[in-house]
Amino acid sequence: DEDEDEDQDEDAMPPPPPPPKPLHPLQIVKNDLSTEWKVLVASAAVRPLPFVGGLAQGRLSEALADMVSDAVESTRAEVGLPEETELAPLASPFPPFFLPDGAPPSDGPAQWAEALDEASEAGSDELKYRFAVHAKVASGLAGIAQAFFDEALEMHTGAATSHIAPALDLSAKASLRLNEDLAGKRVAALLDLDVGASLLPDPYRPSEYSLPEGPVPEKVLLQAKFLKKVLKESPRVLVLITELTAPVPDFEDEEVPDLDTLSIKSLAPMLSSLIGAPVDFCDTLGAIGAMVDAAEPGTVILLEHLDADCLAPFPQPEPEVLSDDEEERLPYLGEPEDDPRLVPPPPPQRPDVGVELAPFVDLFVCDSAKACLDRKRGLVALAEPSTVRMAGPTLHKELVSTSVLLTRPKGPVLAIVGGDSLEADVKLIDRLLDSVDEIVFAGAVSLAFLAALGHETGATVIEPALIPMARKLLSKAHQLGVNVMLPVDFVMGSQLVNAAGVVLTDAAPADGEEDEEDEEPEEEADEDDDEVDLAAGFDYDGETMECTLSEGLMKSMHAMDLGTKTLSLVRGPIERSGTILVVGLAGVAQCSAFQSGTRELVDAVIAAHEERSAHVHLAGPDLCKWAALFAALDDPLGDGVGVTHTSPEPGVFQRLLMNIDVPGVEALSNRERTEDEGKLEEELKAQRAAEGVLSEDEEDEEDEEDEE
Asked: What distance in Å separates the CA atoms of residue 523 and residue 665, rounded to the nearest whole number?
């Protein structure tokens, strides 16, 4: 029995990691160059604070001399000691490190004890003088230290303020006013109608993809509500523009057509049924002008997606024109590569959709945050002076929430940064350190900081280039007085998993019986599809355990999630913060075994928002998706429901936070905001409730009832 128990214990222990394979010498050189490059990038991304040592070198000596001189002169005058009176200096108050044999011991400590005794004030003038001078010098030293600290902090704060000062005045960017801007205008709207994930192959023509009959995608429903409001304001014509992503194959061998060959023509009838108006489809820019000119008032035109080949085809190459000069037509007899006529033609450029649309558009509404990151995809050509450009409701909420974080955050400010890579977030973290009071690192990002402090990271290998990045960020946080919190324990797993599933798996089953056993649960799962819990994540087959940093992380296991001790510590900063920004997942929340960290953080920030009205901003597609699943609210998460705001596409938010250009936002027309346009959605809801005005959702419900 003891032998069997030992065998079971050995089987339960995770296998040791395999030894690393030797690298080719050229691969070693490549890795070294890659590390050096990443270090250079990190040095450029982390902005150093100004050196304050010059304050001490240039002014400290002068300040000390003035302070001592003033203390001596003022005390002599107070005590009545004439300037010509010389006082013997006292011996050192510190015991000597070495005394020669036979030398008498120093009585310096006794002399200083007598001089600094409060009773000495009633003694001789000399004792009064020494006591008063010491008190003034001590006070003066404290004042010098405080003045040095204040000036150094002012220098650092000034540098940080210059870093975080928004390069763009978001309050001056125009947003759409439905009741003022639309009537009689030719309007083009760039919306998020990306239905690529819902496209399925046609059963009769497998090469063609279309939208199936069934539930309407959530984003299409949201945009349809907005389009109804637009059409009520009687625009002359409304042109809808969107991007498209390639559909995800259902199995590995499925061939998905190229994105430029796909069409969104099947979206037109779906939109038409939702908005209660006909929707014409246009697949090429060459026909849009005639369609706009011939359109009846209130016509809606759906333009083919921006990546379609047929929308803006490449220009045909110009035919070669032979020269009339006989010498130029003679063949070149030298080396072909030296022929001056063999100049490679420039690569063909697809026509800019914005430039082609500009003559037919009076007002352009941009409501896709993702498209704003690129000049062409954001249709920056549709801007003043030819076209008035305004932000739609979704982009407007993103800009307002970002502006609030930059200009009027509730203090204290807390940032919780998770995710998979420090290298990808180094610039964002550097920017956050300029404006937050506390920062918590979670996920794989935290492992780089722990490695920089000398901790073991289990089986996770930290790239050498990340160590100097982490050290620079920790040094900057220390200089700015930002409290940094790192995990003290982790939930470890024997198998490495990521969002897609298992990365390192055990050996495949040896016989076919185990394969059959593995297939049985899948059949049962198919039968119970209606009861699938989307928030459960995929199952984990490896071993899990909690490890603390003090005891050491298991070298054969991977850190996958925050441990219970860390989660209890993080609740403190959350409970005392007025503004909370959460970026990225705290662990591999896609796996059922590693969801507790993200789930508890989401619950804690939602409680902070609901109980203390804290400003909570969630950023990142994975975080927003899983936070909504964990919260399980009746209404969509965000806009004051559960949290203040969510950024599933955080590109615009992060770029504005880091003072990086956002072409689609910079091109917006300038217009002075109204007071309500500068408020968060939850602030507007509270204002409507206080005034007894119907909310937008209640107005929509009434409109739907009227239509019925």
From this structure: 50
